[in-house]
Design goal:
mainly alpha; single chain; Fumarate Reductase Cytochrome B subunit; two-stranded antiparallel ribbon; 181 residues
Amino acid sequence: MMWRNTQDSYGLVSIILHWLVALAVTGLFVLGLWMVELGYYDRWYQRAPDIHKGVGVLLFGVMLAHFAWRYGNPRPAAIGSAAQSKAAAWVHRMLYALMYVLILSGYLISTADGRGIDVFGLFSVPAGISGLQNQADVAGKVHELLAFVMIALTILHGLAALKHHLVDRDQTLKRMLSIKH
C-alpha cells in the first residue's frame, strides 16, 4: 500500500484520515444525542460533554490535516457519469463545510461563558469569542440542526458508495477500503 494518492487510487494517509473523520463524526453524533438526554445528577452529565468537546477539537486538527493532505496530493479520477461526479463533488463540499461550521458552532457553545475548552488535560483552547447575546442558545440550535443534516449527508454518501459497489460494480468503494482492485 502506498502512502500517497495516485491518479487511480487513494494512499494510506488519505484512507486513514477519511475513516478517522467518519468514525469521529458518527461517534460525536451518537454521543451528542445521548448526552443531551442526561439528567443533572447522572454521573456522565459533566463527563460526556467534556469528551464531546475534546473529540471535537481533535477532529478539527484532523480536518486541517485532511484538508492539507487532500490538496497536496493528486485526487484519483472520479468513477461514474458526469452527473454522478458533480453530485459527489457537491456532497463532499457540503460535508466539509458542515464539519467546519459544526466545529465552530460547538466552539461557540462551549466558550459562551468565557471559559476555554480543556482537551483531555493535554491542552486548552482559549475562549476567543464569548459573551455574545444568546451565544450558547443560537449556536446550540445551529449545532443541533447541522448535526442532523451532516448525518443525513453522511448516510447519502455511504449509500452512494454501496450503490457504486453493489449495483455499478466499480472500484469506488474498494479504493477507500484499500482493497486491491
